[in-house]
Amino acid sequence: MVPQSPIPVRWRTPLLALAVIVMAAVAPGTVRAQSEAEDGARSGRAMADNVPVKPEAQDSQIQARLQRILEASGWFTDPKVEVREGIVFLDGFSGTLEQSEWAGALAARTEDVVAVVNRIEIEPDIDWDLSPALQEIQKISTAAQRAVPVILIGAVILLITWQIARLAARFMGWVLGNRITSPLMLTVVSRAFAVPVFVLGLYLVLQISGLTNLALTVLGGTGVAGIIIGFAFRDIAENFLASLLLSVRNPFRAGDLVRVGEAEGIVTNLNTRSTVLLTQEGNHVQIPNALVFKSVITNFSSNPSRRGDFSVGISYDDRTSEAQEIVEKVLTSHPAVRHDPAPIVVVDELAASTVNLKVFFWFDSDTHSPIKLRSALMRQTKQALLDGGISMPDEAREVIFPQGLPIYRGEPGGKPVAPRRARPPRRVAESDATSAEGGLASEEDDVLREAGATRTPDERENLLKGS
């Protein structure tokens, strides 16, 4: 016999619906409370449900108990437990997060523990596994082995292209050798035909290697790279362009005696950066080509016929025309002075104590030294003027009395005594050249011979060679 329920049948369905509604309302709170409990356990922090006012276990007992448990587990490094008013503070290091959470849960389950502060840190796990590195090395090795054929083909193409470029440069140099006289211009033009050949070979190598974009960048970025390099090396580019213009204009040749600004010497070298002069003292002077191109260049060797000059002062009491004739005779009689153009002697200045004569003469600078010839002519002129009775007073220390100075003896007003006449100067024949002057030959050969043993400061190719 089946027992009957005390609830009437008509009330069963409403009561069942009411139970479902109540369970639906209570269930979220239960689930939320369970979730919060789980989160608290995972974070290593837990609180007691009921905090006793008078705990049975002391803080020191809890601390000692937890300290022994953590040390006995062997999972922690330098574990430290501190308990204050039922709150457990955990410090130390653990190998994994699970071990740290286990320590927090252990402390939370301990008797009379109010809360747990888990400060156990996780030690980083150093992995000494070298297999990833070995795998990467193996990948690189495999890629390198696959690239060996491409590298060999590219090297062969570059070598062939380099040889073709050199042959092209030599061919253009042979073709243009009779039309371009400047060695530098010939080199630049011939290499200008060789550069495109080498760039084409480089493009083929990049194309074979599968670097199509890089190949296009190389071809398209050549102009941009040239501009950038030009700005970075502006001074070098300026000197190089100046060397091109100097080699085209050719204002001097190797061995010419020139003056560039304040520097004077014999041209020994012209390269892409500087011009080297050898001074009369045997020193090498390097002048940047840009400065040479902008400076005033005086070439003493361009015309071997050169004019020299010097000055001489005579007394106001002497006949100027007579002194001019004496000096002219000295010049015309000297073998180093050219008769065409003829030497001239002019009055240059009426000074305080002298009449200054300016002497001009022409000579061959390839044969005779300017300073030696000037010394010889001044020496002969001085002696010829003295022999001719022409005085040359000193402007600062000498006073000339042409009529003499009367001397009185005895009382003032006595008869003056006529001054004693000076002896005429002794005539001496001056030679055209003396050993002290070293002759009249040009000293350029001596300078070059003495400096021949020295090393040129710039060992690069001389662009004046063969000019």
Structural features:
467 residues, alpha+beta, Histidine-containing Protein, Chain: A, Alpha-Beta Plaits, five-stranded antiparallel sheet, three-stranded mixed sheet, transmembrane helix, ion channel
Question: How would you portray this structure in words?
Answer:
- Pfam families: BON, MS_channel_2nd, MS_channel_3rd.
- Homoheptamer.
- The chain is α+β, with helices and mostly antiparallel strands.
- Among the domains are: 59-122, Histidine-containing Protein, Chain: A (2-Layer Sandwich), CATH 3.30.1340; 136-232; 305-396 and 426-430, Alpha-Beta Plaits.
- 46% of the residues lie in helices and 17% in strands.
- Strands 7-6-5-4-8 form a five-stranded antiparallel sheet. It has a three-stranded mixed sheet with strand order 1-2-3, covered by helices on one side.
- The longest helix has 46 residues, at 131-176.
Major sheet: arrangement of strands: 7-6-5-4-8
Helix content: 40-55%
Q: Please state the average pLDDT score.
A: 76
Q: Report the portion of residues in β strands.
A: 15-25%
* Amino-to-carboxy terminus distance: 141 Å
Count of alpha and pi helical runs: 12
Give a quick summary of the entry.
By secondary structure, this protein is α+β, with helices and mostly antiparallel strands. The protein has helices at 9-42, 59-73, 97-108, 131-176, 183-208, 212-220, 222-232, 234-249, 289-294, 320-333, 370-387, 444-451; strands spanning 76-84, 87-94, 115-122, 257-260, 263-270, 274-278, 284-288, 297-299, 305-314, 344-350, 355-364, 407-408, 416-417.
